[in-house]
Design brief:
Distance between the termini: 14 Å
Helix content: under 10%
Low-confidence stretches: 1-6, 12-36, 175-183
Length: about 450
Amino acid sequence: MSSSKFKLIPTAITMAAVAVVFTGVVLKHTTSSSGSGIMLAEFTSKDEQAKFLPINPENETLRSPKLTKIYERESSHKRLLKGPETPIVDPDTGILYVLTEEANLVSLTDVQPMQKPQSSTAKASRVSAKATLIADLGIGRPLGAAFAKDKDNKTIIYVADTLAGLLRVSNLNSNNDGPDATSTTRPTSNKPKVELVASSFQETNGINGQTTTTTSRRILYANDVDVGPITGHVYFSDASDIAPERTPVDGEGFSSWDTMTAYKRDLLRARPTGRLLRYKPETNEVDVLLDGLWFANGVAVDRNEDYVIVTETSKLRETQYNLNVNDNDDDDDDEYKNDDLTKILVDSLPGFPDGLTCDRDSGEKDQVCYAAMPSPKIPLINILNAVPASISMFLRTLLLQLPASAFGAIKPVNYGGVAKIRTRSGDVSILQDPKGEEIGLITGLTVFD
């Protein structure tokens, strides 16, 4: 597909396609996806409002000729690439996998050129791939995934599932189809094993005398996940205490989980309830690294596992948590070896940030990470930010009482963006399709060599 050393893949749910973006010497992979009782909005002053950077309409760095779209090849089987979310690449085999709206883990192999339809005005090149169902992940909605190795050095995948929590997929490479396979289903023998490893965590409620009390809390909105390259610890986000609800059954008899309405309610309520969690496979325990996050979303760990970055979507920012796990390396830079556990890495972006990844193999001392941005500021936010804070709180409280069906009118703006972030200097550059004409609603991304 390209002689470039690296690759980047965005997927647009609206067209059920995966796109590959060539960015000079770097090519990356991204994906996109298109309660009960009275819920009250919180008071938010003007100073607390998220600050959007302006969009440069001349910046078209995610458009043709740098863009190649990968479509699912037609077959006699049911279409698998429905609502693709979060592409990941097996570091051992180079096979591309995506999570789908139907809670499937799907591989894309055997990539071949496609002829552009004569009626098409699109400039992006098109290729097709064979989609293969690798594993049925259950009844939830998987949003994030990351490869890891188990204690026997076998390849596994951790999955953040909104309904279930943290999943683990093992026995992945048994009877693997490989890049040149032609079937669309895997053999029935030695199928991957899907297991639930975490659906709750222990929350510390405070000190009563000299006794610390804890309460078991359910994970309500698992969102994204990454695995530490040093410890093998699994870092994942629990976005909000507003859980997604089941969508109505469509004409094909399919029902998923309405993650977008849950986010819209969380955004209007303006209460930070997101968490950054850590799962330790050696003890099978989950602990809370950060709480009070403004919709905890994308998660990425740096190459040395010195820190983990978590996206706070509603604040348009990336927050860095210092792990202090690699104190014996030879790097003389002690920037991350201090007592300050958190810092705001990026405080404002032109769009709502979503999925996140770091380029661990780049070799650059100033670690490069990438944040997907599915949408810039929406018109409703303009209105709510323009009125006095007390009126804004009143209007948001009224909107929160609307039924879920009414929230469909609150739509993202056509846009496709990726923020390139240098974690040492804090420098940010934007790759984008400013009007979302060729690629939009980018929600996740991964880097591979």
